[in-house]
Write a structure and sequence with these properties.
By secondary structure, this protein is an all-alpha fold. The protein has 7 helices and no strands.
Length: 143
């Protein structure tokens, strides 16, 4: 559902979410020099792209799901070990899966899908959304 938005033509909803996750991670990491490997704020001044945007997005997801404290702890470990990007992403995803089973991330994903759908079809009301969710659940259960 990567629909362009009106404020930033050419930028879809997924790209905006990725930026949001990166910003969440950067805010949680702050100016702490321990996290320079992930995001060196001084490099922006020098024009050097010394940051890890993919990892920051993944860490932002972790922060949203499990809180900034857990995210900062894993970020510190990543900065100490400096693993290759693929391994670092795997470590973050393992941490995300290790959380207690919670419907919150799925609920947010469903809500985001509904919001995106409604942004293009404003006539869709709550009754139609409820009917679609019921139908989806029936299909999932195989009824």
């Amino acid at each position: 559902m990567g629909h362009n938005n009106k404020l930033l033509p050419g930028v879809d909803q997924r790209q905006l979410r990725e930026v949001g996750y990166r910003m969440r991670a950067q805010l949680a990491l702050g100016n702490d020099t321990r996290f320079r490997w992930l995001c060196d704020r001084d490099s922006y001044v020098d024009g050097k792209p010394k940051w890890q945007p993919l990892l920051l997005s993944e860490l932002g997801r972790l922060s949203e799901e499990q809180g900034p404290k857990k995210m900062r702890a894993l970020a510190a470990k990543l900065c100490e070990e400096r693993p290759p990007t693929d391994r670092a992403r795997a470590m973050i995803r393992e941490a995300r899966r290790g959380a207690e089973s919670s419907p919150a991330p799925l609920t947010e994903a469903v809500l985001e899908t509904i919001r995106c759908y409604r942004s293009e079809r404003p006539d869709v009301d709550d009754d139609l959304v409820a009917a679609a969710l019921e139908e989806a659940l029936l299909q999932l259960r195989g009824d």
